[in-house]
What does this fold into?
Amino acid sequence: MTKFTFILLLSTFALALSSCRKDIPEEPVPELAFTVPAHFPNPVYNFSNNPVTIDGFELGRRLFYDTRLSLDNTVSCASCHRQGAAFSDAGFPLSQGVGGVFGDRNSIALQNLAWNPAFMWDGGVNHIEISSFAAIVHPKELNIDFAVLLERLRGIGEYQLLFEKAFGSPGIDDQRFFYAMTQFTGLMISASSKYDDYLKGTTSLTVQETTGKALFEQNCASCHAGVLFTDFSYRNNGLDSEFTDLGRKGITNNPDDLGKFRVPSLRNVALTAPYMHDGRFANLDQVLNHYVSGIQQSATLDPNLAQGIGLNASERAAIIAFLHTLTDTKFTQHSRFSNPF
Amino acid sequence: MLFAVLFSCKKNPTEPDLGLPKTKDIQISLKHVWCGADNAFALNQDLFHPITEETFNFTTCKYYLSNFQFRKTDGTWWSHPFSYNLVAVSQSNVSTFVLPEVPFGTYDSVRFLIGIDSAKNVSGAQAGDLAPSNGMFWSWSSGYIMIKLEGSSPQADFNNFSFHIGGFMDSDNSNTTRWKTISLTATPFTVSGQNNPKLKLFVDLANTWNSGNLVSEVNSIHSASTRAHYMADLFMTAFLLEGVE
It folds into this structure.
């Protein structure tokens, strides 16, 4: 029994005791804890400073789905991070923020964030707790000054109660906001795909998926590495020879980082189209074709891709079949992460 | 019951307070001036720089001082365990903040970091003076802005200036934070049960510009550029001892 579960049981017991006098039936308290899947590496973030509680998680969930987090009350985090698309913006190369303005980059899937050493396509954000800050204040996203947002939330009675419930005393401030948000987003763990079941030995892959897995490991896994399907590095994968988006160089100012972007996880990749930092590829066929015959040369191109990747049509189809085994509908349909409004 | 008795004993004013820590909250006072101690710095007012002959009209002057340390007369340094202070000039040109629980003693030197140490830059969500809602934290490239100076100048492009100096990583030479040491040898600083210790500094903001840093040449910095490093070096020279109480 985890310590957290134990605390929950205790509090359930206390509730039961306190309600003895009246015969009000208690709703069962659902278990909630940050649990590292057995086949995952150690996370970067482990909630040691921000213990997960149901009230904290539910507050974060509400904030995530609340359009009042944007300047004109039209856009929430969930507007561009949709659960059914593994919290990416299903179908949209770029996403629309306040006023219908399009953002600069494709909305990246939100999953297994507690394992990320950095956030955003260029890794500019260095900590999960502040990962929502950039989107909230960005003029092309939620477009609201953070101090103004906190004042707004302080004026909403519902949030006064929810923050007090989550943190044990009245008050709404930066840290509490980000802690609650992190309890929600940090628990978005995707580890229940067919591939995960295969790793556990509870299911087997088809012949085509098995072929695709071998081809993937041979040709793709040096970057899309390990059980998280990313090595978290920044690479130029040959999309362009000239760069309108500086990528990682915009953060480091290092010329060697020009046109480099984070290697994204491929978990749920079949649900997160379109692809690349600018959403230029509509489907996985286009992505595979790019690696086979579309590589553009430039000074910072990843050396592994200089010659492209040689794959025939059936090999490409096998890889795509394998990638579909990374789809985790238990995660993308779990009621815990759905819209509470 | 026994605990209650013990507890109430402590409250008795006639008992010696042997268990109490020998510390005192001290006050840091910063008097913002422009070209000398007699000229008050003010927001929304034309300030002429006699060396560069440029005119500045500030709308924002905010910066961080952190990691205060005091040198005892035996030469060892005492480090404040948690001192992060946002200074924001507003109506008055004097800003003050409290450093809690400084041990009793006599100190002959003080030093502090202008800006925020690298550890706090990578530690996630903070509260109080370090809260992002203070407008001193970059969202797109995480890290604290250590100095924010904004306003207008007829010499500047588009008649305005915006200097956001920050950066904390030694690895890519982006660390613009600076340690400032101020000697208190001539006026030793005593913290005791008897006094209300106050350390008073001048901050001469005109020092941030000179013939090598003209607002007509550079009126905007939003990263840890070479010029940002130079401005951080100049800003460091703004701090001078006014006196101690």
Residues 8 and 14 of chain A are 10 Å apart (CA to CA).
